[in-house]
Design a protein that fits this description.
- With 59 residues, this protein is mainly α.
- It has 2 helices and no strands.
Length: 59
């Protein structure tokens, strides 16, 4: 497939996409940010716990 045909196909498919409205986009963005913060805190606590456990075993 040549690049021009590919780009035409991409353009045609992008017109079919259902883009979120303002309120939906805001809700999705907040959900993503809250999830990322939660996962970051979760893994930071797990890392801290494993570090403390290893320090107890080494000493």
């Amino acid at each position: 497939m040549n690049p021009v045909t590919f780009l035409k196909n991409v353009s045609r498919e992008m017109k079919k996409v259902s883009w979120p409205r303002g309120r939906e986009l805001t809700r999705y963005t907040i959900t993503v940010i809250v999830t990322v913060v939660f996962v970051a805190i979760f893994f930071a606590l797990i890392d801290l716990g494993i570090t403390q456990l290893l320090n107890l075993l080494v000493e």
